[in-house]
Amino acid sequence: MAWEREANDGGEFQSPALERLVRGLSRLPGLGRKSATRIALHLVARESPADELLGAIGAARAQVTNCGNCGAITEADPCRICTSERRDQTLLCVVASPVDVLPFEKAGFYRGRYFVLGGLLSPLDGVRADDLPFDRLLARVERDQVAELIIALDASVEGETTALYVQRLLQGRHLQLTRLATGIPVGGALAYTDEVTLQRAYQFRRGF
Amino acid sequence: MRIVTARLSGFRNLSEAALAFSPGVNLVQGRNGEGKTNLLEALNWLALGRSHRGSRNEDLIAFDRDELHVALELEEDAGARLACEFGLDRSGGRRLRIDGEAVRRRTDLVGRLATVFFDPDSIRLVQGGPERRRQFADQGMAEIDPAYLAHLTAFQRALKQKTGLLRDLRRGAVNGAQARRELAAWNAELAHHAAPVSLGRAEYAALLTPFADRIHRDLAGTDQPLVFTYRPRLESVARAVSSGGDAGVENRSGNHALEQDVSAEMDYIVGSEIQRGRPLTGPQLDDFEVRLGGPDGLDLRTFGSRGETRSAAIALILARSDALDRRRGVRPVLFLDDIFSELDRERTRRLQEMASRLHQVFIATARPGDIADWRPEGLKAWRVEAGRITDIPADGGAD
Predict the structure, then answer these.
(1) ipTM score of the complex?
(2) Counting beta carbons within 10 angstroms of the beta carbon of residue B154, is it exposed (0 to 12), middle (13 to 18) or buried (19 or more)?
(3) In Å, how far from its chain's centre is CA B58?
(4) DSSP state of A122
(5) Residue-range domain boundaries for chain B
(6) What is the CATH number of domain B125-305?
(7) Which terminal Cβ of chain A has fewer Cβ within 10 Å, N or C?
(8) Distance from the A164 Cα atom to the nearest Cα atom in chain B, whole angstroms
(9) Does A100 reach chain B within 8 Å, measured CB to CB?
(10) Model-level pTM?
(11) Tens digit of pLDDT for each residue in B227-256?
């Protein structure tokens, strides 16, 4: 449609209200003006899902919170994982973001609990040690008498440094500190593994 | 490795062109400002995934165009052909394809098109500041070992973070114990990358020296040995380098003893670093010595004559080709951009012969006299005038 193409060419709509909607949407993560425009037009069309969405957004905003104990996204505080009797409270997995809990839970093998840091050390983004809940992590380790702390942070410079900080923080305590291994993904072809991952996998090779 | 053909469109001032090159010497003639260097830049872009002159991608697009497109057909030394292309547009879009497959990361390009580029700026390698020599060694090591590039990139990122932290600490009130723990974590991460970077630089200097020495003897007609030596800023690295023999790839990363020493050395001076608000030691301050007459010979960085530093620089740069051949079995394409004006006649002639013996060469010159009496086999000559590239028939070569 001609009017849609015009919008995509970077021009503005003749409707200020629609323009406002497009701008608002394009501020969302992962959306450029092009996608925002497509979504906006879809939302104002006759069979729009907008009302349903509005309700869902309102309900989510009212009900969703972070677990005061572990930081995971939940509607009940403390969350189901923290209150579950079947979860081993002496096994604690440290992750950067609430999203990182999902793959563990989807896989279903993990029987311990979580601690969400809510970020990684990165002075360039203004994130210093004060800005992350390390004191709450220490308190948690004490309270739950954690026997093993598993660090599951990104394999980036910031993730590695945050892991090293946690390691220093817990030095001298009686607990086992472990990290996730890095290597070749299961089902991945060796030929397409990048050199660095391959080198790590080689370094940490194991006997049969 | 050879560039067999090139198709260009929208690259700087160059007109659309489809060119078939000589596997030997390709001579690009034209007055200054007509576009000779632009042609070399277009051909060399894929080697680094960016302009060797440090120009922004956007500035490479012709002023009256919205995008540029360059397609190269490469022939590897074993004879395999490889089609590479890249396109850049004004909104920052970048498309890279190798053999029809999209390439996303710039690091995946490294080593696909191996080149060595000489221009008047690069041959100031010896008399210039240490940053040039670090960049030279880093580029050379990265093209023979991708893991080196990964460590170098991570090191630079961690260094920026630590610099940011020190700047913060200098400005604001310092919670002593926590600041030190935070710095120690950054130091440990830095050391994890600084150790392999340092050992890689030491390895590269050792690898390069015998090749550079041999080239230098031929080029300068001297018996004096040329030595390229790594001078690390970190004392722990200096000790490891002088005591440890040949550090192979496996020993370079995962050398925990060295990582711990480096980390401890960095921790030892955090007090001064907090005071000064910047990192005071590390590979970012390394240098390489270039000596003539053996390990205790004349330090050409400070005492070399103009001619001596240029010969040494050319020998070192050309030695990158031998290092690459030794480690990866690849002979790079050579670009010689207007450097003969920097050399005397004899050295010009010797460099021309050495370069063309093993490589495909692209020579850009504004002075046809530099190559007037030189007619290597299979020579192809091109003229660049106001961005238009035409070939000069073999018989009517230099005018």
Answers:
(1) 0.84
(2) buried
(3) 22
(4) B
(5) 1-114+330-399, 125-305
(6) 1.20.1050.90
(7) C
(8) 5
(9) no
(10) 0.87
(11) 999 999 999 999 999 886 555 555 676 688
